[in-house]
Amino acid sequence: MNIAVFCGSSMPRNKEIVEAAAALGRRIAQEGHTLVYGGSNLGLMGVVSGAALEEGGRVVGVIPNLFSDDIIHSQPVTELVRVRSMAERKERIMEMCDAFIALPGGIGTIDEVSEVMVMNQLQIVDGQRILDGTYKTKPMILLNIDGYYNSFLDQLRLTKEEGLMRSDAGLVAVNSVEDIFELLAPGGAEI
C-alpha cells in the first residue's frame, strides 16, 4: 500500500510528536508499505522519511521544483518525483496513494487534509468524478497527539451540524501509531 504522510518541514516543540513521526516512519517500512511524502529532510518530513529509510523501507519524495537543488536533493529517497508546483505535488500524492496520514502540522498540512476530504466527498479519482457506486473512500487519518487536532475536529463538527458538510469524507482521528495500523489492517475498522 502507498501511504502518504502529511507533515511540516518544521520541528515542533512537543517531543511526543517527533517520537510519533519516527515511529510512524518505522512502522510503515516494517509493514512493507511505501511512504510517500513531501520530499524534504527538514522538520517532521525528515524524521518520518529518515526513520522509514533506516528500516529499509521504500520512500517516495514528491517535491516542487521551486525549492533549491540543495533542498531537493537533501534527503535520500528511493524515488524522487519532481513537480512544477505545490498544487501539483498534492495532486500527484493523492493519485499515488491508498491512504493518508497527517501528523500535527501547519497550514500546509491542514490544506492537504482538506484536499483529501474534498476528493473523498466529491468521489474524485484522477480528476474524474466516479458516480456509479464504485468509489471507495480513501482513509484520511489524523494522528491527534496530545489533542493537537481537537480544535480542527470541533470546527468540522460545527460545519457538519450546520449542514455545510455532507459526510466525514473518510476522516478519522486516532491517538497513536498503533491505532493507525489497526484501521489499515485487512478487515480493520470501517472508515
The overall strand count is 9
Gyration radius (Cα, Å) is 16 Å
The overall average pLDDT, rounded, is 91
CATH structural architecture: 3-Layer(aba) Sandwich
Count up the helices: 7
Give the domain tally: 1
Give the topology string: H per helix, E per strand.
Answer: EHEHEHEHEHEEEHEH
Distance between the termini: 16 Å
Structural class designation: alpha/beta
Biggest beta-sheet profile: 7 strands, parallel
Class, according to the CATH hierarchy?
A: Alpha Beta
- Shape descriptor reads globular
Strand order of the largest sheet: 4-3-2-1-5-8-9
- In what range is the share of β-strand residues? 15-25%
Q: Give the proportion of residues in helices.
A: 40-55%
Q: Uncertain runs with pLDDT below 50, 5 residues or more?
A: none
CATH-assigned fold name:
Rossmann fold
Describe this protein's structure:
There is one protein chain. The chain has 191 residues and is of the alpha/beta class. The radius of gyration is 16 Å and the shape is globular. The mean pLDDT is 91. The protein has helices at residues 15-30, 43-54, 69-72, 86-96, 107-122, 150-161, 177-184; strands spanning 2-6, 34-37, 58-64, 79-83, 99-102, 124-125, 128-129, 140-143, 171-174. α1 (15-30) runs parallel beside α2. It has a single domain (2-184), classed as Rossmann fold, CATH 3.40.50.450. The protein is built from seven helices and nine strands, in the order βαβαβαβαβαβββαβα.
